Amino acid sequence: MNHAQKGFTLIELMIVVAIIGILAAIAIPQYQDYTARTQVNRAYSELSSLRTAVEENLTRGNTSFTWGDLGHVQSNLTDAITSTTSLNFGGGAGALSVTLGGNSGAGIQDAVIQLSRTSDGTWACRIDGGSASDWKATYVPAGCTNS
């Protein structure tokens, strides 16, 4: 008699499920790290784009201006900043700072990104993971320091 196989055996199905489980256990944390890193990079890029507007204001002799004057558009990854909040770059030195919140991942909530300008025109980036629950140094974009 010819007995053709009509499906998978239970052990074959269990092996496939085990392999999928192992792949998922590895992939999910990697994906979460990737999304956190990209969210930090996006918030940094959005803040960094305002440096040109700061330089333009300083060139025109304005050392006190608002976020609205810089053309700041609220990000869904950061805590709300009122566009009328004043910034002071007296003597050319000052800082732009945002706190991650809003729709950012749980592991990066409350991290602070700060771009500081010295009076000689040099910009520096510092990111403080602060009370962010799962903050990792690998989330820090190139050119920034982790504090």
Automatic annotation (TrEMBL):
Keywords: Fimbrium, Membrane, Methylation, Transmembrane, Transmembrane helix
Record GO cellular component, one term: type IV pilus
InterPro entries: N_methyl_site, Pilin, Pilin-like
Residues spanning the membrane: 7-28
Any Gene Ontology biological process: type IV pilus-dependent motility
Keyword Chloroplast among record annotations: no
PROSITE patterns: PROKAR_NTER_METHYL
Membership in a protein family: Belongs to the N-Me-Phe pilin family.
This protein's name: Pilin
Organism encoding this protein: Marinobacter flavimaris
